[in-house]
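Quick entry between incubations.
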Amino acid sequence: MTTAPVASAPKKGSRLNRNNIPTTLIVTLIPVCVALNIVGGYIASALRLPVYLDMIGTAISAIVLGPWWGALVGVLTNGGSALISGPVSLPFALVNIVGALIWGYGVRSWKLGRTIPRFFLLNVIVAVACTIVAAPIIVLVFGGATGNGADALTGTFLAVGQNLVGSVFSSNILTSLADKIIGGFVALAIIEALPKSLTADIDIVKATPLKGILLAVAGVVVGVLIIVVFLAINAGASA
Amino acid sequence: MSMQAALPVAMIPGNSIIHRINPIAKLVWVVGYVVLAFSTQNIVVLYSMALFALLLAPIAGITKPLLKGALILVPVGSSLLALQIIAPAVERPWTPVGEIGPLTLYGDGIYYGFVLLGRIVASLLLALVMVMTTHPSDLFTSLSKLKVPYTLNFMLAMTLQLIPVFQREVGIIMSAQKSRGMKGKGFSAVLPSFVPVFVGAIERVQQLSISLESRGFGSNGIKTSYRQVRGRPSDWVIGIVGALALGGLSAYSIWRGTWNISSDIVFSPLFVVVTFVISATLFFGVVLFAVFLSLKK
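Done. Structure below.
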């Protein structure tokens, strides 16, 4: 008796990566993640949100495909943005790469995706790391300006006597925390909705409604705001 | 929700002399512009570069869309100048030139502020001219001739195709959600808008992946392109002149230690104060306008 070949079974010698996902699927998934990153910012502004949500595709690709595929998504996001709106966004590819590596290794190697608190912590780590990378770029390339409302916060920190790098770091960490935590949990919801063939080997918790997360984000942001204001006032007093 | 106009920067069809230049020659100029912009602190050079890029716009017939695309510089440019006046990114001691409320204004940072702004303006304007006068397929065909892996080209080309598709789908999905009585803005609308768009796209690319696999994507051999891009002698001249001129100026700037001419230019205290007031007003105007839009039903 002969059995019919299973359509989805990979052929002997077909090109699969370590996730057992065909290379052609990865090649087509990556542009989707890149486009989601680029369009994410526009969706956020259309929904009138005070966050960017421009790294959701990076988070998804880093978690589902692997950290270095996520890094490639980060590079292509800023490369693609450069083709659309000029090369000024290119240096921020570094921020995207760092975010991808931490999300990818965090979930796949350090098991920080197993529970909601762990995943929350992972997003906080991503936010802090992204700010550490982004703040010097903002100062060196844009003289501390980003062109959004956070610059008013930077100006306030400068007015109380903090230096430029410290002020940019302080304002960026606040926006980054809100952005990366919310973005991370949106990515989690999307990952849960993906076909099981893509997510079978990922040890990650089920998505949770955003309402509870938003309260936690508000708490974290207010806590960090109190700390950075305290540090800025101290810096101003000692200057 | 009008998502269609969210990305105004795209190729403007035309047959001008700028449109006909080989994409690689244009790319040489853009890369040269970025290298020169970030290796010099000479504001005369920087704003001459910006002016040159601006002069190309009427030749290419893209003046209006170029100026529209350059509008993204207003918030970043205005906040950049304002921040540099209250916290110069140069070594202390700083020279105070005035006070406005709790803010002390310094004259030292304004030159560096104009340098940073000039870098962004010059690089952005020429990049916009290239993007608005180059068919994306021509660019990717040219890049593949430069031995850029075709997989990378494919991914970039597919990204550019997907962006308007995603924008359109988000608009459709948001309209559908609103017709069901769901909120069309705020955090409660995030998951109902992101998840269907992304999951729908994933399902479609799975079919595309099978299609690519069946057509031998990734196999060895010469890759052909529907669009043919040829380099004429004039393209070579434009590319070589660009590489020599911009490379030469970059080398000269580095040799002169960034070619900073701040000691030759004196900004009066009144100019510094007026620049701060204008840029801060412009920045807060943009922020308040954004807040007004977000509060408007």
